[in-house]
Every structure is written in C-alpha cells, then in structure tokens.
Amino acid sequence: MVEVTDLSVDYYQQQKVVPALREISFNIPRGSTCAIIGPSGCGKSTLLYVLSGLLGKFNGKVLVDTEPVAPLRRQTALILQDYGLLPRKKVFDNVGLGLEIRGVKGEQKHAVVKRVLAEVGLWELQDRYPSQLSGGQRQRIGIARALALEPDLLLMDEPFSSLDALTRERLQRQMLQIWQSKRMTIVLVTHSIEEAIFLGQQIIVMSGHPGRILDIVDNPRVGEPGYRKSAQFHTLTTVLREKLVP
Ligand SMILES: Nc1ncnc2c1ncn2[C@@H]1O[C@H](COP(=O)(O)OP(=O)(O)OP(=O)(O)O)[C@@H](O)[C@H]1O
C-alpha cells in the first residue's frame, strides 16, 4: 500500500539547509498497521506529511497504492495532534466537513455522520461544540471525521499523546477494533513504546536528527487478546527501549 524508497527531505531556513530525513526505505502492506517511533525532531511528522501528500518537495520515490503520492488523495485521511476541529462548528458539522468538501450533502451525509459517530460511541454529542467535549471525546470526533471519508490509508500523528493514561488505553483499544473491522492501512507516529507495540504490526525505529531508519521490527501479535499483558510484549518493550536509548 505504501512504498518508500530512498526518501530524503530537507527544509530550508534563512537559506540554510535543515536535513530532516535521510535515505528512508520501507513498505507497508495493504491492510496492515505500522508505528513510527523515534526521538523528538527526528522527522516523524515530516514523514507523515510526505505520505499524506501535503509535503511534495522530497528526493526519492513514494508510492501510495502503486501511484506516486499526490495531494488530496481521496482515500487518505490524516489525523493531526490537535484533532483539527473547528471551534464554531458543532460535532455533527465537524464530522461532516470532509464529506461536504467532497460534495456529499443532505440525507447521504447525515447517514454517514450518524454511522461513524455511532462507531466511536458519540452520536449523542452531535449538537455540542468542541469546547464542550473532553480531550478524549475530541479525539474520537477527529477519528470519526477521518472514518467518514472511508479511508484506505489512515495517517495519525501522535493521536493520543495529550490524553490521560486510562483514556489513552481505551482509545488505543477502540482504534484496534476499528482497524479489525475495516482493515484499512494505518500509519501511526508515536513517542510511546507501548503504543507502538500495541498498535504497530511493523515498528519503524528512527534515529535522531536527521532521521534515518535504525531498525524495522515485526510485531505480528498485534490485536491478539491479552497481548498487552504478555511476556512477549514486555520483552519487546525492553528491546525497543534499548534501540532508542542505547
Ligand atoms: N518548516 C520547517 N523549517 C525548518 N525546519 C523544520 C521545519 N519543520 C520541521 N523542521 C525541522 O525538521 C526536523 C524534523 O521535524 P519533525 O516535526 O518532522 O520531527 P518529529 O520527529 O515529528 O518531532 P516531534 O517528535 O518533536 O514532534 C526537526 O529538526 C525540525 O526542527
């Protein structure tokens, strides 16, 4: 689904080159999950922006569903850290925003918004404004808005980082259920080793700035009942910690 070959990205700041990513190569099979983890500033968000098509200036080859990555690809959804909800629009309209932009209106829009809000368990909050929601609820609304577009590629930039530990675990479980029922391809940027292991069938470990790939770890037990409490989960936590903090 995603094929990245020799990707390098530079930013330019006051005529100085800021190297962000160097010689990144990996593949993500369709319908699988991938977590990207690495130290602050190593280029994780940059990598996600490239995959979303928002950042078009790069060297190397990036294919999404066998096509060169392009902006506004219809079936790619990006969830940013701040959820991107519009404060003056009610939950219903926030969730329906992407559909509106794509020309889906009226009854059809209503049915989709209702379905995805029910999927994240928040249909009853449809008339609230974002400021009237908890952080976890806002995040679920952000997820619902992405789901409304029926993405086959869901990109998430530290989606649960600002939440308390319990809410975070609950939303991780919910994300896993959504993935198990829909089997879209998910790419998740995270600072959390636990989150990477809980959600990423493939874990891309990046070095510090400029970001290179240190290792790609296979994690096939994602989604198995009781995985978080298993010995293998804990062993992998230690392995990843040693890679990140040698
Ligand atoms: N617009 C920009 N201009 C210049 N440099 C930038 C720009 N955006 C990001 N950078 C630099 O590129 C590098 C990668 O940034 P990026 O935000 O992708 O890292 P990150 O791994 O997501 O960081 P964090 O984990 O702290 O969110 C950093 O060193 C950052 O300072």
Automatic annotation (TrEMBL):
Ranked from the top, the taxonomy reads: Bacteria, Bacillati, Bacillota, Clostridia, Eubacteriales
Q: What PROSITE patterns does its record include?
A: ABC_TRANSPORTER_1, ABC_TRANSPORTER_2
Q: Which Pfam families match?
A: ABC_tran
- What keywords sit in the KW lines? ATP-binding, Nucleotide-binding, Transport
Q: What is this protein called?
A: ABC-type nitrate/sulfonate/bicarbonate transport system, ATPase component
The species is: Desulfoscipio gibsoniae DSM 7213
**GO molecular function annotations of the record:** ATP binding; ATP hydrolysis activity
Q: Which residues form the ABC transporter domain?
A: 2-233
PANTHER family hit by this protein? ALIPHATIC SULFONATES IMPORT ATP-BINDING PROTEIN SSUB (PTHR42788:SF13), TAURINE IMPORT ATP-BINDING PROTEIN-RELATED (PTHR42788)
| Gene3D superfamilies associated with the record | P-loop containing nucleotide triphosphate hydrolases
